[in-house]
From TrEMBL:
GO CC terms: extracellular region
Native organism taxonomy: Eukaryota, Metazoa, Ecdysozoa, Arthropoda, Hexapoda
Record bears the keyword Coiled coil: no
Example of a GO MF term: serine-type endopeptidase inhibitor activity
Residues in Pacifastin domain copies: 29-63, 78-112
Compartment list: Secreted
Site feature Reactive bond, where: 57-58, 106-107
Signal peptide residues on this chain, from the entry's feature table: 1-29
Protein name: Venom pacifastin domain containing protein 1
Family affiliation: Belongs to the protease inhibitor I19 family.
């Protein structure tokens, strides 16, 4: 009788250990397959080797909020422009398309007093300038237009220093993309060409 009791005790312990192992394994089951992707609101997620999702941490807008990005045509007297040129009209950014036509964003602008001319070195961020002046800033050739606004065109870099972000291969970029490159705020035209202006202009 003593051996039956010992055998039952061993079997009970084995059963408990087995059930504990099954519960433990179920509790640590992989949440996803490695490489699997999913979208959570505006964030992208990918399944890691540990079997759980790693996601970007963007602040997402509520579903009912819509962001409007419109393009408008400037005043009729400005029908032609130099392809690749960038400038500001009030608080709106404008650029010249591949067809030589100006297009601008349409934001409601508030009036602000004019900023003083920045007389620093060419590497400083110029927000206003002396009309007619030209200068080089990193890999950009800049010209000051009549209203004192700097307009810069991206040129081939002559230095060994590589820009922090360069256009896609063959000089193309994603249409309507925006990015920072050194002290320049860059935009991509509808045709995939990059154009840049000084960051604080």
């Amino acid at each position: 009788m003593h051996s039956n009791q010992a055998r039952d005790t061993v079997m009970n312990r084995f059963t408990v250990l087995f059930l504990f192992s099954v519960c433990l394994a179920v509790g640590y089951a992989a949440e996803c397959q490695v490489g699997e992707t999913k979208q959570e609101e505006c964030n992208s997620c990918i399944c890691t080797e540990q079997g759980d999702f790693a996601c970007t941490r963007k602040m997402c807008l509520p579903p009912h909020v819509k962001v409007r990005r419109e393009i408008s045509v400037p005043d009729p007297e400005e029908k032609q422009c130099e392809q690749g040129a960038e400038w500001k009209q009030g608080c709106n950014r404008c650029f010249c398309t591949e067809l030589g036509e100006p297009v601008c964003t349409r934001k409601g602008c508030t009036r602000m007093p004019p900023a003083p001319v920045d007389k620093g070195s060419p590497r400083s961020v110029v927000t206003t300038c002396q009309p007619g002046t030209k200068w080089m800033e990193d890999c950009f050739e800049c010209l000051c237009i009549e209203d004192g606004t700097p307009v810069c065109l991206r040129m081939p870099c002559k230095t060994q220093e590589r820009p922090k972000r360069s256009p896609k291969p063959s000089g193309k970029c994603t249409p309507r993309a925006e990015w920072m490159e050194g002290d320049m705020h860059c935009f991509c035209s509808e045709g995939g060409d990059p154009y840049c202006v000084p960051k604080n202009s």
